[in-house]
Write a structure and sequence with these properties.
This protein is mainly α and 88 residues long. The protein contains 4 helices and 2 strands. Strand 1 and strand 2 form a beta hairpin.
């Protein structure tokens, strides 16, 4: 979000954000904000699923001695890796 700096009459500096400069267009206002929130939530969900999938594949690829270091067995790693991406 851009900020502008304006000199006040008394020589002080005032900072305002773009939303403050244009009334009615701040966060949570305007047409389509509801759709934007849905899109952001959908993006966050897909990103979470992708990160889960990536971490489970990395866990499954660890050698046994590293699994032992973190307190997991090969069976634990396989069980976790076999979970579907949407399951926490």
């Amino acid at each position: 979000m851009a900020q502008s700096m304006n000199d006040g009459m008394d020589g002080s500096m005032n900072t305002r954000t773009d939303a403050q400069e244009r009334p009615g267009q701040g966060i949570g206002q305007g047409i389509g904000q509801g759709i934007g929130g849905v899109v952001v939530a959908l993006f966050d969900t897909v990103a979470t699923w992708n990160e889960r999938r990536r971490q489970r594949r990395a866990l499954e690829a660890l050698p046994d001695h590293l699994l032992h270091d973190i307190g997991l067995s090969r069976a634990d790693a396989v069980t976790e890796a076999d979970k579907p991406f949407w399951q926490g």
